[in-house]
Amino acid sequence: MYKYNILKIFPFIIGLILLPIFLNAMIDETPINWEELALGKETFSPHVFLKDGTRVYAKNQDRAVHCESLENCFENFYRQKEAPVVLWLGNSQLHAINQYKDTDILASEILYSDLKKEGYNLLTISHPSANLQEHYVISEYAKLKLNLDSVILGVVFDDFREDGVRNDIGKVLNDKSLSVALSVTKIGRKIIKKSSDVLDTEDDYAGLKMTFQDKTERLLNEQLESTTELWERRAYLRGLVFNTLYKVRNYIFNINPSSKRKMIKPRFVDNWSALEQLIDSNNASGINVYIYIAPIRGDVEAPYVLSEYNDFKQKISLLASEKKVYFMNYEDLVPAKFWGMKDSTGASGLAELDFMHYQYGGHKILSNKIYKDFELREVE
Predict the structure, then answer these.
(1) Counting runs of H as helices and runs of E as strands, what totals does the chain give?
(2) Which residue, 355, 313, 320, 352, is CA-closest to 334?
(3) Which domain holds residue 281?
(4) Residue 325 Cα distances to 122, 150, 175, 201, 318, angstroms
(5) Alpha helices in the chain (DSSP H)
(6) Cβ 273 vs Cβ 133: under 8 Å
(7) CA 282 to chain centre
(8) How close are the terminal C-alpha atoms of the chain, in Å?
(9) Residues contacting residue 9 through CB under 8 Å, at least 6 positions apart
C-alpha cells in the first residue's frame, strides 16, 4: 500500500524537480515593458533619461519633451513665465518607430523644435492604447499645472474599445483640484468612481501592515529572493505566462492585426462622453482644441467593421463642426512605403502587418503636417 502511494505521487515529485529548471530556462535577462510588449521587436520606443533619473521618450537639453508617464512629467517640463504650452495627446503611434534606426527621432521631437521657433512649448504625452477617458483626465490636469494654449488630440477608433484609466494616470486623481474639476461632469464622476474602486480593493490589504502576517510574509519574501532568482523575478514569469496565453488564444481563434475589431458600445459611449467633455472644458477656458484622425495603414483593408469606422469618422467631423474646434482627417497621410511589419501576436511566429506604427519617414510627415495646419489655424 505504501509503495503504491509513492508511485502515485512520483510524477508530482518529478514535476517539482523539473519545474525550477524549466522556469529558469524561460527567464531572459532583458527587462520587459509589459505594457508595450505588443509592439514587438520590429517596433521600437526610444528612451532617454533626465538628470533626476526620469525616463522620457524625448527631451530637449534636460527638459521633458515627450513623457511616457505623468509622474514628474510636468515638473520636468514646466518653467515659470515661459511661452504658452501646446499639449499633444495620443497613443503608442506617437512614441514607437517601425524598423527603427539609431538616427531616427519621434514626431514629437521634430514638432517641438518647429513650434519653439513660433514661440510655443510643446509637451507630448502618450500611452499604449490610450483611451479618451485618459486623455480627458490628462487634459484637465494640464490645465491646472501648465500655461496651456492648445491641445492637439489624435483619435484612433481602436482606442474607443478601451476603458478606465491606468494606474499611472489614476494616481493624479488624488489631486483635489483635479477631482473637483472632473466631478462637475457625469463621465468625470464615473472615471473617479471606477478608479477609486480599484484603489479600495488594493487598500483592503492596508490593514495587515505591521501585523504578524505582514511581518511573516515580508520575511519569507526576503529569504526567497535572496536564495532563488525565480522568486525575485516572479512578476516577469507571471507576465510571460499571460503573454503566452494571449498568443495561444489568438492562435486558437485566428486573431491577428488584420482581424475585424467591432465597436464595444458601452465603452464607446463612455469614451465619446469624455471626448465631448474634453472639448467643452477647453473651449470654456479659451484653450484651442485641434483634433485629427490618426494615420492608419491604407494599402490593405482596415481591421475595423467599415460601416462602424465610417460612422465614427463622420461623427468626429460633425462633433468638431458643432463644437467649433479644428479638425483634420490624417488617416491616409502616411504612404504605404513607410508602414512595416511587427512581431507575431499569435503562436505561429510569423510576422504580421502593423496598422498603427510607421517608420521614421511617417513621423516626419505627421510632424510637418501638424505644424503646417497649426500655422493655418493660427491665421484663421
Answers:
(1) 12, 12
(2) 355
(3) 2-379
(4) 19, 11, 28, 40, 10
(5) 2-26, 107-117, 132-145, 167-170, 176-183, 186-203, 212-227, 229-232, 234-252, 265-284, 306-323, 360-379
(6) no
(7) 22
(8) 91
(9) none
What rounded mean pLDDT belongs to the chain? 81
CATH number at residue 124: 3.40.50.1110
- The pTM (predicted TM-score) of the whole model is 0.76
pLDDT value at residue 37:
47
Cell of 334: 502616411
Q: To 5 degrees, how large is the angle CA 136–CA 138–CA 141?
A: 110
281: cell is 472644458
Phi-psi region of 119 (alpha: psi -120 to 50; beta: other; left: phi over 0): left
Q: What is the CA radius of gyration of the chain?
A: 24
Whether the pLDDT of residue 253 is over 80: the answer is no
Pair 257, 353: CB distance under 8 Å: yes
Rounded CA-CA distance 184/277 in Å is: 10
Question: 379: pLDDT confidence band, cut at 50, 70 and 90?
Answer: very low
Residues 192, 140 contacting (CB under 8 angstroms): no
Please state, in angstroms and rounded to a whole number, the distance separating the CA atoms of residues 134 and 154: 13
Top-ranked range on mean pLDDT: pick from 51-60, 133-142, 341-350: 133-142
Non-local (6+) Cβ contacts of 293 within 8 A are 154, 155, 156, 313, 316, 328, 329, 330, 331
Q: Which of 210-214, 244-248, 319-323 has the lowest mean pLDDT?
A: 244-248
Structural domain count, the chain: 1
Query: Residue 100, Cα to own-chain centre: how many angstroms?
Result: 19
pLDDT for the residue 182 = 97
Distance of CA 380 to the CA centre of its chain: 33
Q: How many residues does the chain have?
A: 380
CA–CA gap between residue 99 and residue 103 (Å, rounded)? 12
